[in-house]
């Protein structure tokens, strides 16, 4: 019987900029390529995963990026925000999971759950009231994962994607004191 593969987390820093950009672009393209045109996605990625933008986000002291690694290979990343780095209600005592990106060939191996467990553990250590995230309404697989984990929908946030008004569903997981 093969041993269970070891999942590890490593905090990303500015030296990891190229990997963050590449993995972010790769996973977003795979996730949304059937729901949008390549041109729409490319325009979005050119802004959202522009190296200068990601560099500023990595350097923000209220944001923390972690790589999830499986047997020393980067499987994906998770970005956590507190305070003013949160994209919604930054005054509240919460931790935001802004991004949780897992490469396609690593899905179904328990890494998404491990990443979320790590985020919740950090949130509890920081004594926040809840963990929240926004998930694009066009991502039913992710929505199902978050609901199964225990998140509940707590509103929505409209945004423009390539000229079209779409929604991020806001989901929250309340933490017990």
Descriptive notes:
The chain has 177 residues and is an alpha+beta fold. Helices cover 34% and strands 33% of the residues. The protein is built from 5 helices and 7 strands. It has helices at residues 17-32, 38-48, 51-59, 111-125, 140-149; strands at residues 7-11, 63-70, 73-81, 94-102, 130-136, 152-161, 164-174. It has a 7-stranded mixed beta sheet with strand order 1-2-3-4-5-7-6, sandwiched between helices. Strand 4 (94-102), helix 4 (111-125) and strand 5 (130-136) form a beta-alpha-beta unit. Helix 1 (17-32) packs across helix 3 (51-59). The N and C termini lie far apart (40 Å).
Tell me the quaternary state. Answer: single chain
By DSSP (H or I, 4+ residues per run), the number of helices equals 5
Sketch the topology as an H/E string, one letter per element: EHHHEEEHEHEE
Global structural class: alpha+beta
- How far apart are the first and last residues' alpha carbons, in Å? 40 Å
Strand % is 25-35%
The biggest sheet amounts to:
7 strands, mixed
Question: Judging from the principal axes of the Cα atoms, what is the shape?
Answer: globular
Report mean pLDDT, rounded to a whole number. Answer: 92
Taking strands numbered 1, 2, ... along the chain, how are they ordered across the largest sheet? 1-2-3-4-5-7-6
Indicate the radius of gyration in whole angstroms.
16 Å
Low-confidence stretches: none
Helix content: 25-40%
Number of strands: 7
